[in-house]
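Could you help me review a protein record that somebody else here produced? Do not assume that whoever made the record got everything right. The record follows directly below this note.
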Amino acid sequence: MFTSALLRWLQRKRYQYEVTFSLYMLTPAEKFIFNSFLFIFLSMIVIAASLYLPQHIHDIALRAWFYYAGDDAVAVSGRHKVES
């Protein structure tokens, strides 16, 4: 019973996806091309976010700390200066 309900829900979501993006009127080859581009685009966004977002959040936190505390070592580039 749970499997059939899950299967119906997935079929409904697939139908909503095809109707929303007007894929129901495309040929199977055109659907494949569209879905491939969409998959590649979303994959690139996820990869870019996972690679660059942590560093960006770190830089924003350092900048916020500078605004709060006024630490001169972090002021120039967001990284600590090396004292020689």
Notes: The chain has a mean pLDDT of 86. Helices lie at 2-20, 28-69. DSSP finds two helices and no strands in the chain.
